[in-house]
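Entry 14. Ran structure prediction on the chain below.
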Amino acid sequence: MSWSLQWLALEVKYLDRAVSFYRQHLGLPVRSEHETETVLGAGTTDLVLRRPTEVPRGGVHTHFAFSTPAAEYDGWWDRLSEQFELTESEFATGKSLYFYDPDGNCVEIGQSNDEGSERGITGVFEIVLEVEDLDRAESFYSSLDVTVVDRGSERRRTRLTTGEFDIELWEPHLGIADARGGVHVDFGIDTGDRSPESVLDPIDADPIERLDEGLRVIDPDGHRLTLM
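Output, C-alpha cells:
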C-alpha cells in the first residue's frame, strides 16, 4: 500500500494574511483562488487555506510537516531563524525544525531522503490529529488499512503510515515546540489502485458523503477524510 496525501485544509482567520505568510516565507505558489479559500502548492500536496463560512472548516492548531531535500534543510534554518524562534529535533530519518503560522498551526520542515530534481517544499509527510480516545481512533484508522508503526511510551500517541505519509493520533497534550494535534481537520487521500468503496467497506461509518472527487467520511473525533 502506498497512498498519498492530496490535500490538507487549515482554517484561517484572515485569508490574505495566511496566504502572504506561506508565499513569503515558504515560497508556496497559488494554485487556485476563491472568495473564501485559496489553494497553495506544497510540492505534491495542496495546502488549502479556508476562511470558515461552512463545514468543512479546515483544521485549527494543526501540527503538520513539510518535506524538503536534506541538502536544503540548513538553508531553511538560516532563513527562517532570522524572523522566527525555531525549535529543532533530530530523528533517525533526519532533522526537523518547527515554528508557528499566524493562526497558531505548528509548521514543521523535515529532511527528506529523496534527492531527486525537486527542490524547496516537496510535500506534506505528516499530519497530527487530536483524538479523545486513542484506542478508538487507532481502531478506526487501522480498519482503513493504515498501518501502525509506533506508539508512545505513555500511550498518548500512535503513529500510522499509508506508505507515503504518516498520521499521528494524539490524546490532548503538548508535543515538540508545544504543538497540539489539530481539531476538525479536513484532508484527502488518494488510495491508488484501491477504490474508496473497498477501503471504507470494513468500517461502520455513517453517513458517508459522495463527492465529485471521492467519498468523505467523518472519523469518531470529527475529522473529515476524503478518499479518492
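The two ends are 14 Å apart (CA to CA). Will compare against last week's run tomorrow.
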